[in-house]
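Box 4.2: Ligand-aware structure prediction
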Amino acid sequence: MLKIKKELIKQIADQGEKGYPYEICGFILGKIDYESNIRTALEIYQVENQNKERANDRFEIDPKDYLKVEEYADSKDMQIIGIYHTHPDHPDRPSQTDLMFAQPDMSYIIMSVKKGKAENWRSWELVGNRFEKEEVDII
Ligand SMILES: [Zn+2]
């Protein structure tokens, strides 16, 4: 389960609309309670989409950005609890590529941006080897 502030969803929407028609991406930082399996999002951190050729329907994160964000999260006593990205003119469902790079115990927020306007979004989590809709609590 993901707990996330409305404000962070708004930030993702703003970034997604600004980045349209390309996919934007970033990290969700916060805390994980492994016992209850609740992830609480406290901040988001946008990174550059490294896939320039197919930025309209793919995203790639530089390993250096991964490290940088991990260090930042560490310094603020947080963890990387997920990754968010947008789907310009596509639904908020994960693609095959999204599945290929997914890791367990992470929240994957996908926001659909249609004609430049952020619409639906959903959070997904890996269960076994497929994505399932994650329960979200807006706090
Ligand atoms: Zn995707």
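In the box above, the bound molecule is zinc ion. Residues 6-19 form the longest helix (14 residues).
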